[in-house]
Amino acid sequence: MNVESVTIERLGAQGDGIATINGEALYVGFALPGETVAIRRTGSRGALVSVEEPSSARTDPPCRHFGPQGDRCGGCSLQHLDITAYNDWKKQLVNDALSARGIDADIKALITCQPGSRRRAVFSARAVKNGLVLGFNQTGTHIIASIEECAVLSPAIVAALPGLRKLAGILAHGGKPFRIQVLESLTGLDVAVDGIGKIREKARQDAIGQALTLSYARLSLGTEILVEARKPVLKFAGIDVLPPPTGFVQASTEAQEAMIDIVGAHLNGAKRIADLFSGCGTFALPLARQAAVDAAENDGAALKALDQAARHTPGLKPVTVERRDLFRRPLSTAELKKTDGVVFDPPRAGAQAQAREIAASGVSKVAAVSCNPATLARDLRILIDGGFRLVSVLPIDQFLWSPHVEAIALLER
Ligand SMILES: C[S@@+](CC[C@H](N)C(=O)[O-])C[C@H]1O[C@@H](n2cnc3c(N)ncnc32)[C@H](O)[C@@H]1O
Protein backbone atom coordinates (compact mmCIF):
# COMPACT_ATOMS: atom_id res chain seq x y z
CA MET A 1 0.00 0.00 0.00
CA ASN A 2 1.31 3.47 -0.91
CA VAL A 3 2.44 5.87 1.75
CA GLU A 4 1.08 9.38 1.22
CA SER A 5 1.41 12.70 2.99
CA VAL A 6 -1.64 14.59 4.32
CA THR A 7 -2.26 17.66 6.46
CA ILE A 8 -4.62 17.34 9.40
CA GLU A 9 -7.23 20.11 9.68
CA ARG A 10 -9.16 19.32 12.83
CA LEU A 11 -9.92 16.80 15.56
CA GLY A 12 -13.03 14.65 15.18
CA ALA A 13 -15.45 13.69 17.93
CA GLN A 14 -13.64 10.34 18.44
CA GLY A 15 -10.23 12.04 18.79
CA ASP A 16 -9.01 11.21 15.27
CA GLY A 17 -7.25 13.84 13.19
CA ILE A 18 -9.29 14.73 10.09
CA ALA A 19 -7.84 15.64 6.68
CA THR A 20 -9.85 16.40 3.54
CA ILE A 21 -8.93 14.41 0.43
CA ASN A 22 -10.89 15.14 -2.77
CA GLY A 23 -13.64 16.71 -0.70
CA GLU A 24 -13.97 13.61 1.56
CA ALA A 25 -13.00 13.35 5.24
CA LEU A 26 -10.07 11.07 6.00
CA TYR A 27 -9.69 9.97 9.63
CA VAL A 28 -6.18 9.45 11.04
CA GLY A 29 -5.77 8.18 14.59
CA PHE A 30 -2.97 9.69 16.75
CA ALA A 31 -2.64 12.76 14.44
CA LEU A 32 -3.24 16.38 15.47
CA PRO A 33 -4.55 19.53 13.72
CA GLY A 34 -1.82 21.37 11.79
CA GLU A 35 0.37 18.27 11.47
CA THR A 36 1.65 16.86 8.20
CA VAL A 37 1.66 13.08 8.55
CA ALA A 38 2.56 10.08 6.42
CA ILE A 39 -0.27 7.57 6.22
CA ARG A 40 -1.44 4.39 4.52
CA ARG A 41 -5.00 4.81 3.34
CA THR A 42 -7.82 2.24 3.54
CA GLY A 43 -11.18 3.76 2.57
CA SER A 44 -11.92 6.75 4.81
CA ARG A 45 -9.20 5.82 7.34
CA GLY A 46 -5.48 6.53 7.27
CA ALA A 47 -3.05 4.48 9.39
CA LEU A 48 -0.35 6.76 10.77
CA VAL A 49 3.12 5.82 9.51
CA SER A 50 5.04 8.84 10.80
CA VAL A 51 4.59 12.46 11.84
CA GLU A 52 6.50 14.62 9.34
CA GLU A 53 5.72 18.04 10.85
CA PRO A 54 4.49 17.77 14.45
CA SER A 55 2.06 20.19 16.07
CA SER A 56 3.37 22.34 18.93
CA ALA A 57 0.49 20.84 20.95
CA ARG A 58 1.95 17.31 20.56
CA THR A 59 3.19 15.83 23.82
CA ASP A 60 4.66 12.50 24.99
CA PRO A 61 1.93 10.04 25.98
CA PRO A 62 2.30 8.84 29.59
CA CYS A 63 1.40 5.22 28.82
CA ARG A 64 3.49 2.74 26.85
CA HIS A 65 0.38 0.98 25.51
CA PHE A 66 -0.86 4.10 23.76
CA GLY A 67 -0.51 4.91 20.07
CA PRO A 68 0.77 3.25 16.91
CA GLN A 69 4.14 2.56 18.54
CA GLY A 70 2.44 0.97 21.58
CA ASP A 71 -0.13 -1.85 21.55
CA ARG A 72 -2.86 0.52 20.31
CA CYS A 73 -4.87 -0.01 23.48
CA GLY A 74 -8.27 1.46 22.61
CA GLY A 75 -8.96 2.83 26.08
CA CYS A 76 -7.42 6.25 25.32
CA SER A 77 -7.39 8.28 22.13
CA LEU A 78 -5.76 11.59 23.06
CA GLN A 79 -2.73 11.13 25.33
CA HIS A 80 -0.57 12.84 22.68
CA LEU A 81 -2.34 16.23 22.96
CA ASP A 82 -1.17 18.81 25.51
CA ILE A 83 -3.52 19.35 28.41
CA THR A 84 -4.74 22.87 27.52
CA ALA A 85 -5.71 21.93 23.96
CA TYR A 86 -7.17 18.65 25.25
CA ASN A 87 -9.37 20.42 27.82
CA ASP A 88 -10.57 22.85 25.13
CA TRP A 89 -11.45 19.93 22.83
CA LYS A 90 -13.48 18.21 25.55
CA LYS A 91 -15.44 21.37 26.26
CA GLN A 92 -15.92 21.86 22.50
CA LEU A 93 -17.51 18.38 22.19
CA VAL A 94 -20.30 19.54 24.52
CA ASN A 95 -20.58 22.91 22.76
CA ASP A 96 -20.85 21.26 19.30
CA ALA A 97 -23.61 18.89 20.44
CA LEU A 98 -25.65 21.75 21.94
CA SER A 99 -25.09 24.03 18.91
CA ALA A 100 -26.36 21.25 16.62
CA ARG A 101 -29.69 21.56 18.48
CA GLY A 102 -29.64 25.36 18.32
CA ILE A 103 -28.82 25.70 22.02
CA ASP A 104 -26.64 28.61 23.08
CA ALA A 105 -25.29 27.75 26.53
CA ASP A 106 -23.04 29.12 29.24
CA ILE A 107 -20.59 26.20 29.23
CA LYS A 108 -18.29 26.38 32.23
CA ALA A 109 -14.62 25.34 32.27
CA LEU A 110 -13.98 21.60 32.17
CA ILE A 111 -13.90 19.99 35.62
CA THR A 112 -10.82 17.78 35.38
CA CYS A 113 -10.03 14.37 36.89
CA GLN A 114 -6.52 13.25 37.82
CA PRO A 115 -4.64 10.38 36.14
CA GLY A 116 -4.89 7.23 38.28
CA SER A 117 -8.31 8.18 39.66
CA ARG A 118 -10.54 5.75 37.76
CA ARG A 119 -11.99 3.21 40.20
CA ARG A 120 -13.91 1.02 37.75
CA ALA A 121 -12.73 -0.93 34.69
CA VAL A 122 -14.07 -3.59 32.35
CA PHE A 123 -11.23 -5.75 30.99
CA SER A 124 -11.50 -8.15 28.08
CA ALA A 125 -9.82 -11.55 28.46
CA ARG A 126 -9.33 -14.59 26.25
CA ALA A 127 -7.38 -17.84 26.34
CA VAL A 128 -4.78 -17.93 23.56
CA LYS A 129 -2.36 -20.63 22.35
CA ASN A 130 0.39 -19.92 24.83
CA GLY A 131 -1.53 -18.49 27.76
CA LEU A 132 -4.04 -15.77 28.37
CA VAL A 133 -4.44 -12.20 27.21
CA LEU A 134 -6.14 -9.58 29.43
CA GLY A 135 -6.49 -5.89 28.66
CA PHE A 136 -8.58 -3.52 26.57
CA ASN A 137 -9.74 -3.92 22.97
CA GLN A 138 -7.78 -2.07 20.32
CA THR A 139 -9.85 0.75 18.80
CA GLY A 140 -12.60 -0.57 16.53
CA THR A 141 -11.48 -4.23 16.79
CA HIS A 142 -11.95 -7.32 18.96
CA ILE A 143 -8.18 -7.70 19.30
CA ILE A 144 -7.24 -7.46 22.97
CA ALA A 145 -4.21 -5.29 23.76
CA SER A 146 -2.50 -6.89 26.77
CA ILE A 147 -2.14 -4.32 29.56
CA GLU A 148 0.74 -4.11 32.05
CA GLU A 149 0.25 -0.48 33.11
CA CYS A 150 -2.49 2.14 32.82
CA ALA A 151 -2.27 5.88 33.48
CA VAL A 152 -6.03 6.19 33.95
CA LEU A 153 -6.87 3.40 36.40
CA SER A 154 -6.30 3.61 40.14
CA PRO A 155 -2.96 2.19 41.34
CA ALA A 156 -4.85 -0.56 43.23
CA ILE A 157 -6.44 -1.84 40.01
CA VAL A 158 -3.14 -1.64 38.10
CA ALA A 159 -1.38 -3.56 40.91
CA ALA A 160 -4.12 -6.21 40.71
CA LEU A 161 -3.48 -6.98 37.01
CA PRO A 162 -1.22 -10.06 37.54
CA GLY A 163 -3.79 -11.56 39.97
CA LEU A 164 -6.67 -10.82 37.59
CA ARG A 165 -4.73 -12.56 34.84
CA LYS A 166 -4.34 -15.65 37.05
CA LEU A 167 -8.04 -15.59 37.88
CA ALA A 168 -8.94 -15.24 34.19
CA GLY A 169 -6.62 -18.16 33.39
CA ILE A 170 -8.49 -20.36 35.88
CA LEU A 171 -11.87 -19.51 34.37
CA ALA A 172 -11.01 -19.23 30.65
CA HIS A 173 -12.10 -22.04 28.38
CA GLY A 174 -12.64 -22.48 24.65
CA GLY A 175 -10.92 -19.31 23.42
CA LYS A 176 -14.09 -17.21 23.64
CA PRO A 177 -13.50 -13.64 24.90
CA PHE A 178 -15.10 -12.68 28.21
CA ARG A 179 -15.12 -9.66 30.52
CA ILE A 180 -13.79 -8.96 33.99
CA GLN A 181 -15.32 -5.96 35.75
CA VAL A 182 -13.34 -4.50 38.61
CA LEU A 183 -14.50 -1.89 41.08
CA GLU A 184 -12.16 -0.53 43.72
CA SER A 185 -14.33 -0.27 46.83
CA LEU A 186 -13.27 1.03 50.22
CA THR A 187 -13.04 -2.57 51.52
CA GLY A 188 -11.14 -4.02 48.55
CA LEU A 189 -11.72 -5.05 44.97
CA ASP A 190 -15.17 -6.10 43.81
CA VAL A 191 -14.56 -8.40 40.82
CA ALA A 192 -17.27 -9.75 38.49
CA VAL A 193 -16.63 -12.13 35.59
CA ASP A 194 -19.12 -11.93 32.76
CA GLY A 195 -19.78 -13.70 29.44
CA ILE A 196 -17.82 -16.84 30.42
CA GLY A 197 -20.69 -19.34 30.03
CA LYS A 198 -20.83 -22.51 32.14
CA ILE A 199 -17.73 -23.32 34.19
CA ARG A 200 -16.67 -26.60 35.81
CA GLU A 201 -16.97 -27.04 39.57
CA LYS A 202 -13.18 -27.30 39.92
CA ALA A 203 -12.65 -23.98 38.12
CA ARG A 204 -15.30 -22.39 40.35
CA GLN A 205 -13.59 -23.64 43.52
CA ASP A 206 -10.13 -22.62 42.26
CA ALA A 207 -11.47 -19.15 41.40
CA ILE A 208 -12.91 -18.78 44.90
CA GLY A 209 -9.56 -19.86 46.38
CA GLN A 210 -7.76 -17.36 44.17
CA ALA A 211 -10.14 -14.53 45.19
CA LEU A 212 -9.47 -15.29 48.86
CA THR A 213 -5.70 -15.50 48.32
CA LEU A 214 -5.76 -12.17 46.49
CA SER A 215 -7.92 -10.68 49.26
CA TYR A 216 -10.73 -9.49 46.97
CA ALA A 217 -13.74 -8.14 48.84
CA ARG A 218 -16.05 -10.08 46.50
CA LEU A 219 -15.98 -12.30 43.43
CA SER A 220 -19.09 -12.81 41.28
CA LEU A 221 -20.00 -14.61 38.08
CA GLY A 222 -22.27 -12.00 36.51
CA THR A 223 -24.62 -11.11 39.35
CA GLU A 224 -24.12 -14.46 41.19
CA ILE A 225 -21.84 -13.94 44.19
CA LEU A 226 -19.22 -16.72 44.40
CA VAL A 227 -17.49 -15.45 47.52
CA GLU A 228 -17.82 -12.33 49.64
CA ALA A 229 -14.97 -11.95 52.12
CA ARG A 230 -16.11 -8.42 52.92
CA LYS A 231 -19.07 -6.35 51.71
CA PRO A 232 -17.78 -3.86 49.09
CA VAL A 233 -18.48 -0.36 50.43
CA LEU A 234 -18.61 2.98 48.60
CA LYS A 235 -19.31 6.40 50.05
CA PHE A 236 -21.59 8.91 48.33
CA ALA A 237 -20.84 12.25 50.05
CA GLY A 238 -20.02 10.34 53.24
CA ILE A 239 -23.01 7.96 53.06
CA ASP A 240 -22.13 4.23 53.04
CA VAL A 241 -23.58 2.20 50.16
CA LEU A 242 -23.08 -1.52 49.42
CA PRO A 243 -23.33 -1.70 45.60
CA PRO A 244 -24.58 -4.93 43.98
CA PRO A 245 -22.21 -6.87 41.66
CA THR A 246 -21.96 -5.17 38.22
CA GLY A 247 -24.35 -2.38 39.29
CA PHE A 248 -23.63 1.05 37.82
CA VAL A 249 -21.48 3.47 39.81
CA GLN A 250 -19.70 6.60 38.55
CA ALA A 251 -16.24 5.86 37.12
CA SER A 252 -14.30 8.15 39.44
CA THR A 253 -14.87 9.17 43.06
CA GLU A 254 -13.54 12.65 42.27
CA ALA A 255 -16.13 13.18 39.52
CA GLN A 256 -18.88 11.62 41.62
CA GLU A 257 -18.29 14.00 44.52
CA ALA A 258 -18.09 17.05 42.23
CA MET A 259 -21.37 16.05 40.57
CA ILE A 260 -23.12 15.45 43.91
CA ASP A 261 -22.13 18.99 45.02
CA ILE A 262 -23.29 20.61 41.76
CA VAL A 263 -26.65 18.82 41.71
CA GLY A 264 -27.25 19.43 45.43
CA ALA A 265 -26.51 23.15 45.15
CA HIS A 266 -28.79 23.60 42.13
CA LEU A 267 -31.72 21.73 43.71
CA ASN A 268 -31.30 23.55 47.03
CA GLY A 269 -34.68 24.79 48.23
CA ALA A 270 -36.67 22.03 46.51
CA LYS A 271 -38.89 20.19 49.01
CA ARG A 272 -39.51 17.01 46.99
CA ILE A 273 -36.95 15.74 44.47
CA ALA A 274 -37.24 12.92 41.92
CA ASP A 275 -33.97 11.10 41.12
CA LEU A 276 -34.64 9.34 37.82
CA PHE A 277 -32.27 6.60 36.61
CA SER A 278 -31.04 6.68 40.20
CA GLY A 279 -28.72 3.64 40.21
CA CYS A 280 -27.85 2.82 43.83
CA GLY A 281 -28.29 6.40 44.97
CA THR A 282 -25.30 8.56 43.97
CA PHE A 283 -27.59 11.60 43.94
CA ALA A 284 -30.67 10.35 45.84
CA LEU A 285 -28.87 9.63 49.11
CA PRO A 286 -26.95 12.93 49.52
CA LEU A 287 -30.05 14.86 48.29
CA ALA A 288 -32.12 13.21 51.04
CA ARG A 289 -30.18 15.37 53.50
CA GLN A 290 -31.99 18.40 52.04
CA ALA A 291 -35.35 17.11 50.67
CA ALA A 292 -37.68 14.14 50.41
CA VAL A 293 -36.50 11.99 47.47
CA ASP A 294 -38.35 9.62 45.13
CA ALA A 295 -35.89 7.41 43.27
CA ALA A 296 -36.82 5.44 40.15
CA GLU A 297 -34.62 3.02 38.25
CA ASN A 298 -34.85 -0.26 36.31
CA ASP A 299 -32.19 -2.25 38.20
CA GLY A 300 -33.85 -3.89 41.20
CA ALA A 301 -30.56 -4.80 42.93
CA ALA A 302 -29.36 -1.18 42.69
CA LEU A 303 -32.63 0.06 44.20
CA LYS A 304 -32.34 -2.46 47.04
CA ALA A 305 -28.86 -1.11 47.84
CA LEU A 306 -30.21 2.47 47.74
CA ASP A 307 -33.12 1.58 50.01
CA GLN A 308 -30.88 -0.19 52.55
CA ALA A 309 -28.42 2.71 52.62
CA ALA A 310 -31.29 5.16 53.19
CA ARG A 311 -32.61 3.05 56.08
CA HIS A 312 -29.17 2.79 57.71
CA THR A 313 -28.26 6.48 57.42
CA PRO A 314 -29.54 8.61 60.26
CA GLY A 315 -30.95 12.10 59.64
CA LEU A 316 -32.20 11.65 56.06
CA LYS A 317 -35.57 12.93 54.87
CA PRO A 318 -37.97 10.26 53.49
CA VAL A 319 -36.71 8.26 50.50
CA THR A 320 -38.95 6.10 48.29
CA VAL A 321 -37.72 3.70 45.58
CA GLU A 322 -39.57 2.38 42.56
CA ARG A 323 -38.43 -0.16 40.01
CA ARG A 324 -39.54 1.18 36.67
CA ASP A 325 -38.59 1.23 33.01
CA LEU A 326 -38.42 4.98 32.47
CA PHE A 327 -38.05 4.64 28.69
CA ARG A 328 -41.41 2.92 28.38
CA ARG A 329 -43.10 4.37 31.43
CA PRO A 330 -41.62 7.75 32.38
CA LEU A 331 -42.95 9.50 35.47
CA SER A 332 -46.05 11.34 34.23
CA THR A 333 -46.91 14.99 34.81
CA ALA A 334 -49.58 13.80 37.28
CA GLU A 335 -47.00 11.74 39.19
CA LEU A 336 -44.65 14.75 39.24
CA LYS A 337 -47.35 16.99 40.72
CA LYS A 338 -45.77 17.24 44.19
CA THR A 339 -42.20 17.28 42.82
CA ASP A 340 -40.39 20.61 42.51
CA GLY A 341 -36.86 19.37 41.66
CA VAL A 342 -35.62 16.61 39.33
CA VAL A 343 -32.23 15.07 38.67
CA PHE A 344 -32.01 12.60 35.82
CA ASP A 345 -28.94 10.63 34.76
CA PRO A 346 -29.90 8.15 32.02
CA PRO A 347 -27.73 5.73 30.04
CA ARG A 348 -26.26 6.93 26.71
CA ALA A 349 -29.65 6.69 24.96
CA GLY A 350 -30.85 9.65 27.03
CA ALA A 351 -34.22 10.43 28.61
CA GLN A 352 -36.39 11.65 25.75
CA ALA A 353 -39.76 10.32 26.97
CA GLN A 354 -39.04 11.46 30.52
CA ALA A 355 -37.92 14.93 29.36
CA ARG A 356 -41.29 15.40 27.60
CA GLU A 357 -43.16 14.67 30.84
CA ILE A 358 -40.93 17.01 32.86
CA ALA A 359 -41.37 19.75 30.23
CA ALA A 360 -45.17 19.49 30.60
CA SER A 361 -45.06 19.30 34.43
CA GLY A 362 -44.89 21.95 37.13
CA VAL A 363 -41.31 21.02 38.13
CA SER A 364 -39.24 24.19 38.58
CA LYS A 365 -35.62 22.96 38.72
CA VAL A 366 -33.85 20.24 36.77
CA ALA A 367 -30.29 18.90 36.87
CA ALA A 368 -29.71 16.81 33.73
CA VAL A 369 -26.64 14.56 34.02
CA SER A 370 -25.35 12.74 30.95
CA CYS A 371 -22.38 10.86 29.50
CA ASN A 372 -23.58 11.54 25.93
CA PRO A 373 -23.65 15.19 24.77
CA ALA A 374 -25.79 14.32 21.70
CA THR A 375 -28.72 12.84 23.64
CA LEU A 376 -28.28 15.45 26.37
CA ALA A 377 -28.72 18.19 23.74
CA ARG A 378 -31.82 16.47 22.34
CA ASP A 379 -33.37 16.24 25.84
CA LEU A 380 -32.42 19.83 26.71
CA ARG A 381 -34.14 21.05 23.54
CA ILE A 382 -37.37 19.42 24.81
CA LEU A 383 -37.02 21.07 28.23
CA ILE A 384 -36.16 24.50 26.79
CA ASP A 385 -39.10 24.32 24.36
CA GLY A 386 -41.25 23.42 27.39
CA GLY A 387 -40.33 26.70 29.13
CA PHE A 388 -37.12 25.93 31.03
CA ARG A 389 -34.15 28.31 30.96
CA LEU A 390 -30.74 26.69 30.63
CA VAL A 391 -28.71 28.28 33.43
CA SER A 392 -25.36 26.62 32.73
CA VAL A 393 -23.65 23.46 31.56
CA LEU A 394 -20.70 21.91 33.41
CA PRO A 395 -18.52 19.46 31.45
CA ILE A 396 -16.67 16.92 33.58
CA ASP A 397 -13.69 14.91 32.35
CA GLN A 398 -14.69 11.66 34.00
CA PHE A 399 -13.25 9.59 31.11
CA LEU A 400 -9.73 10.96 30.89
CA TRP A 401 -8.01 10.85 27.46
CA SER A 402 -11.03 9.12 25.88
CA PRO A 403 -13.53 10.78 23.51
CA HIS A 404 -16.24 10.51 26.19
CA VAL A 405 -17.30 13.43 28.34
CA GLU A 406 -19.77 13.78 31.19
CA ALA A 407 -21.87 16.94 31.55
CA ILE A 408 -24.44 18.40 33.90
CA ALA A 409 -26.98 20.89 32.58
CA LEU A 410 -28.79 23.03 35.14
CA LEU A 411 -32.25 24.35 34.24
CA GLU A 412 -34.97 26.34 35.96
CA ARG A 413 -38.19 28.27 35.33
C1 LIG B 1 -25.62 6.56 33.96
S1 LIG B 1 -26.35 5.46 35.10
C2 LIG B 1 -26.71 6.59 36.41
C3 LIG B 1 -26.98 5.96 37.74
C4 LIG B 1 -26.96 6.91 38.94
N1 LIG B 1 -27.65 8.16 38.68
C5 LIG B 1 -25.56 7.18 39.41
O1 LIG B 1 -25.08 8.31 39.29
O2 LIG B 1 -24.91 6.27 39.92
C6 LIG B 1 -27.86 5.13 34.35
C7 LIG B 1 -28.82 4.28 35.15
O3 LIG B 1 -30.00 4.08 34.36
C8 LIG B 1 -30.51 2.78 34.62
N2 LIG B 1 -31.38 2.44 33.50
C9 LIG B 1 -31.02 1.98 32.27
N3 LIG B 1 -32.11 1.84 31.49
C10 LIG B 1 -33.18 2.20 32.24
C11 LIG B 1 -34.58 2.29 31.99
N4 LIG B 1 -35.08 1.94 30.82
N5 LIG B 1 -35.38 2.72 32.97
C12 LIG B 1 -34.87 3.07 34.18
N6 LIG B 1 -33.55 3.02 34.48
C13 LIG B 1 -32.72 2.59 33.52
C14 LIG B 1 -29.27 1.93 34.77
O4 LIG B 1 -29.57 0.76 35.51
C15 LIG B 1 -28.32 2.88 35.50
O5 LIG B 1 -28.40 2.71 36.89
UniProtKB/TrEMBL annotation:
<keyword id="KW-0004">4Fe-4S</keyword>
<dbReference type="InterPro" id="IPR030390">
    <property type="entry name" value="MeTrfase_TrmA_AS"/>
</dbReference>
<keyword id="KW-0949">S-adenosyl-L-methionine</keyword>
<keyword id="KW-0808">Transferase</keyword>
<dbReference type="InterPro" id="IPR002792">
    <property type="entry name" value="TRAM_dom"/>
</dbReference>
<keyword id="KW-0411">Iron-sulfur</keyword>
<keyword id="KW-0408">Iron</keyword>
<keyword id="KW-0489">Methyltransferase</keyword>
<dbReference type="GO" id="GO:0008168">
    <property type="term" value="F:methyltransferase activity"/>
</dbReference>
<dbReference type="InterPro" id="IPR029063">
    <property type="entry name" value="SAM-dependent_MTases_sf"/>
</dbReference>
<feature type="binding site">
    <location>
        <position position="250"/>
    </location>
    <ligand>
        <name>S-adenosyl-L-methionine</name>
    </ligand>
</feature>
<dbReference type="Pfam" id="PF05958">
    <property type="entry name" value="tRNA_U5-meth_tr"/>
</dbReference>
<feature type="active site" description="Nucleophile">
    <location>
        <position position="371"/>
    </location>
</feature>
<protein>
    <submittedName>
        <fullName>Class I SAM-dependent RNA methyltransferase</fullName>
    </submittedName>
</protein>
<dbReference type="InterPro" id="IPR012340">
    <property type="entry name" value="NA-bd_OB-fold"/>
</dbReference>
<feature type="binding site">
    <location>
        <position position="297"/>
    </location>
    <ligand>
        <name>S-adenosyl-L-methionine</name>
    </ligand>
</feature>
<feature type="binding site">
    <location>
        <position position="345"/>
    </location>
    <ligand>
        <name>S-adenosyl-L-methionine</name>
    </ligand>
</feature>
<feature type="binding site">
    <location>
        <position position="277"/>
    </location>
    <ligand>
        <name>S-adenosyl-L-methionine</name>
    </ligand>
</feature>
<feature type="domain" description="TRAM">
    <location>
        <begin position="5"/>
        <end position="40"/>
    </location>
</feature>
<dbReference type="GO" id="GO:0032259">
    <property type="term" value="P:methylation"/>
</dbReference>
<feature type="active site">
    <location>
        <position position="371"/>
    </location>
</feature>
<dbReference type="Pfam" id="PF01938">
    <property type="entry name" value="TRAM"/>
</dbReference>
<comment type="similarity">
    <text>Belongs to the class I-like SAM-binding methyltransferase superfamily. RNA M5U methyltransferase family.</text>
</comment>
<dbReference type="InterPro" id="IPR010280">
    <property type="entry name" value="U5_MeTrfase_fam"/>
</dbReference>
<keyword id="KW-0479">Metal-binding</keyword>
